[in-house]
């Protein structure tokens, strides 16, 4: 087996949880897509800052191309949304940074289908706010990342797995905090 396959198998339950958590966001409506972008911003923005501070660019290939902060900030501004409060980022072992990036690349893969959903919206405002979902979809980032991951020493696997799980938990928490149904219930209770 390869490190990538081992990581995929060991995080399969987390992938399913992420899919479930974000499937409840109606990406064809302004409220649903806004909540989706807000949840992603609450997780991705502090996470990318944390990874950059941990010198991820020295460990993971093409990090400068992989970041999606600017695209996400553009989309928030396009829809007139504020930058949300950040989800707390746990300490990630520097040896596991590649596992953190693994989840970000999985989310980039998921963005293809999400972009197709947004494209079906009758609301043109949403179409102008899809840089985050479309960012670098034309580049072979998954292939280059997978090749890099498979070259990693097997002794690093526990750190990679822990980091992947930590990042998944960050996105799950953000999805829970910003889920449209939760926000609606909060507003109705007020």
UniProtKB/TrEMBL annotation:
InterPro entries: Haem_Oase-like_multi-hlx (IPR016084). Gene3D superfamilies: Heme oxygenase-like. This is Heme oxygenase.
């Amino acid at each position: 087996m390869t490190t990538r396959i081992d990581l995929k198998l060991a995080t399969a339950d987390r992938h399913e949880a992420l899919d479930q958590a974000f499937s409840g966001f109606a990406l064809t409506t302004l409220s649903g897509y806004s909540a989706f972008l807000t949840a992603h911003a609450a997780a991705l923005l502090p996470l990318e800052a944390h990874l950059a501070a941990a010198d991820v660019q020295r460990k993971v290939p093409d990090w400068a191309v992989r970041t999606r902060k600017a695209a996400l900030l553009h989309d928030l501004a396009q829809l007139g949304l504020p930058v949300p409060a950040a989800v707390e980022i746990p300490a990630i072992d520097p040896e596991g940074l590649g596992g953190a990036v693994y989840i970000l690349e999985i989310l980039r893969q998921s963005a293809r289908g999400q972009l197709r959903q947004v494209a079906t919206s009758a609301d043109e405002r949403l179409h102008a706010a899809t840089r985050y979902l479309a960012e670098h979809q034309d580049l072979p980032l998954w292939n280059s990342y997978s090749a890099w991951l498979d070259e990693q020493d097997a002794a690093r696997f526990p750190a990679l797995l822990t980091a992947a799980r930590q990042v998944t938990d960050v996105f799950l928490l953000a999805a829970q905090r910003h889920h449209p149904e939760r926000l609606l219930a909060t507003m109705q209770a007020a």
